[in-house]
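Today's session is about reading a structure prediction critically. Students often jump straight to the picture, but the first step is always the sequence itself: look for stretches that repeat, for charged clusters, for runs of hydrophobic residues. Only then move on to the predicted structure, which in these notes is written as discrete structure tokens rather than atom positions. Here is the chain we will use throughout the hour.
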Amino acid sequence: MQRRSLLIAPVATAFALAPGLALARSPVAKVLGKTIYDDETAKPGSSLDGQILRPLMQRFAEQERLTVSEAEVAELESALKLPPPPPGLSAADKAMLRELPRSMVLQWKISKALYQRYGGEVIFQQANPMEPVGAMRRFLEEQEKAGAFEIYDAGDRKRFFEYYVRPQTMVVPKEKVNYDVPWWRK
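Below is the predicted structure for this chain, in token form.
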């Protein structure tokens, strides 16, 4: 039996190293029961952070029953002075153009709900003028503890949480944090 495994090992190694053969995928994390593999995080726009945050934020929005109306999207488009879509665009292309303002409205609503639940430090940043990093940290710690996600490598986990635990610049003073009115109405 030992001799047979000695003969099989070099053959298996040769197949694993042969050019053109697929190498085994390595799991790096799990979120909401879905395994995330190393090759999935290497694609542009598919970082580990995004693959964990997107489904967690989507589920949070659903649990909180956060929705975005067409009127809210139109209001943000007007506030940002976005030009109307060019004539001749298909309905699908028009819908795609509205995705960014729609996601911005939803992000504001998620930020508001997270801050109301968890509090913590809020920072100014260009894409989200009132980003509740303290609330996000607490939310993510809670989700991790509950098993909603797991990052297998300690270094990857540390990098994932780094943004939320490091000292922040552009901190919004607590007395100026106000989620009563969306930032585009101010």
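Discussion point for the tutorial: The longest helix spans residues 91-118.
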